[in-house]
Amino acid sequence: MASAFLKNPTKISHFLIQRQFNNRYTFNDSIKVHSFLCNKMQSKPYFRLPNYMRKPREHETSSIFSSSFSSSSSSSSSATAAATSISKFGFVGWYLRMIKAWPILTKSFTSAFIYTAADLSSQTIVRQTSEPVDFVRTLRMAGYGMVILGPSLHFWFNFVSKLLPGRDLFSTLKKMVMGQTIYGPAITVIFFSFNARMQGETSTEIVSRLKRDLLPTLLSGIMYWPICDFIIFRFVPVQLQPLMSNSFSYLWTIYLTYMANLEKAEIASC
Questions:
Q1: How far, in Å, CA of 67 to CA of 46, rounded?
Q2: pLDDT at 183 over 60
Q3: What PANTHER family does the record tag this protein with (predicted)?
Q4: Residues 221-229: contacts with CB within 8 Å, 24+ apart?
Q5: What is the end-to-end Cα distance of the chain in Å, rounded?
Q6: DSSP for 104-163?
Q7: What contacts 206, CB < 8 A, 6 or more positions away?
Q8: If 122 and its partner were Cys, which of 14, 89, 254, 268 is the partner (CB 3.0–4.6 Å)?
């Protein structure tokens, strides 16, 4: 056999190459067989632990947390969307749309409604059981809210928000001072004068009424309105400030309509 190999050197080289290849293939193949057997053993049902018993891998844990976070964030976003839809289709959403479409008219009707309810409440508290409701007086109060108070609140709050756009504490205090020193006294004088004129009082009688009722009314307002103004200017958007002011005005107007419908003041003789 050795002589045959010596006679044919090509066959010798082919034999050596094939032997080297077989040895290399056997080593690589043994590695593949070992890994294949390990995978097959781990894939057996009796070898794998149940999902709730085995320790989750890192990528599985991260996927679980990410899925739970996404579900919680989606639930919170759905809750926010639900709240937005409620405000969009509820009374607040309707009122905001009305303010955007007809701002002065909406605020005027709001003031008229508040003054109507406040005057009826004031008459219920003051009048005797046998006395009828004075609907002329109620109509007079509603007209004041419709014609004077509603438009004045619209322009006043817009003016103040442009002059002092901030909502910090210092800006809020300045708005409160402006309300108590400018708008409050002016609108109170207009209220008493309008109501007295609608009752047929003369200019002299109106002046006498103002001398008698204006200062006590302003002093009572100082005890009530600064707190209301702080809440309005600090926390309420400008488009809703007239509505909030009218809401606070309900209790105040019960007192104000009572003061405005007192008997005529005596004219001081010269």
A1: 30
A2: yes
A3: OS12G0508100 PROTEIN (PTHR11266:SF18), PEROXISOMAL MEMBRANE PROTEIN 2, PXMP2 MPV17 (PTHR11266)
A4: 221/180, 221/184, 221/188, 221/252, 222/180, 224/251, 224/252, 225/179, 225/180, 225/184, 225/252, 226/176, 226/180, 229/175, 229/176, 229/179, 229/180
A5: 158
A6: HHHHHHHHHHHHHHHHHHHHHHHS-TTSPP-HHHHHHHHHHIIIIIHHHHHHHHHHHHHH
A7: 192, 193, 196, 197
A8: 254
CA distance 140 to 117: 12
Q: Are residues 186 and 210 in contact, defined by beta-carbon separation less than 8 angstroms?
A: no
The position carrying tokens 């509820």 is 90
CA Rg value for the chain: 43
pTM: 0.63
72: tokens are: 């919680």
Q: Which residues contact 12 (CB under 8 A, 6 or more apart)?
A: 5, 6
What length does the chain have? 270
For the CA atoms of 189, 191, 197, 202, the dihedral, rounded to the nearest 10 degrees, stands at -20
Per the CB < 8 A criterion, the answer to whether 115 and 149 are in contact is yes
pLDDT digits (tens, 9 = 90+) for 120-179: 998 888 877 778 999 999 999 999 999 999 999 999 999 999 999 988 999 999 999 999
State how far Cα 8 lies from the chain centre. Answer: 98
Digit-coded pLDDT (tens) for 3-36: 554 455 555 555 555 655 555 545 455 555 455 5
